[in-house]
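Protocol step 4 of 5: obtain the predicted structure for the target chain.
Materials: sequence only (see below). No template structures provided, no constraints applied. The aim of this step is simply to have a reference model before the mutagenesis design in step 5. Sequence pasted as it appears in the construct record:
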Amino acid sequence: MTSVVAEEIPDRVTLAVDISQCRGHCEGCHSPFLREDVGEELTEAIIDALVDDNFGVDCFLFLGEGSDPDRLLSLAAHVRSKGMAVALYSGREAVPDSFWAAFDYLKIGPYRPSCGPLNKPTTNQRLYRILPDGSREDMTPRFWHRGISG
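Step 4 output (structure tokens):
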């Protein structure tokens, strides 16, 4: 499934694409069906068509890692070659160093109901922007104004 979103990555109009074969099993997962091998295989040609069909997007977000990290990194490089920012939402506590180099934005941390989602100051999840020098800016606090009351 794909959708154009404006709130997942701050200051970006983002094309979000669900990736199946999720390795996480977070309690309260909003998309448990993505644990299975569902949907169509994501290819460079499909990415090109999605980008062409969604004028104005400037970021491509992989919602999950799938089961083949090398293929994910290859697809991320393809997105970057198109001049777009590339992001990954991972449910893992930590990701390989190669992921930090391949993405412009990276969200890590499994969803934990007791901690709440990204828009709660109590969340265990973090969204980082990876700067050109390789350092990381924690963007998580930018979400907190969206969910404090609920």
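Step 4 remarks: The radius of gyration is 15 Å. The beta strands are 2-5, 14-18, 59-63, 85-89, 105-108, 126-130, 136-138.
Proceed to step 5.
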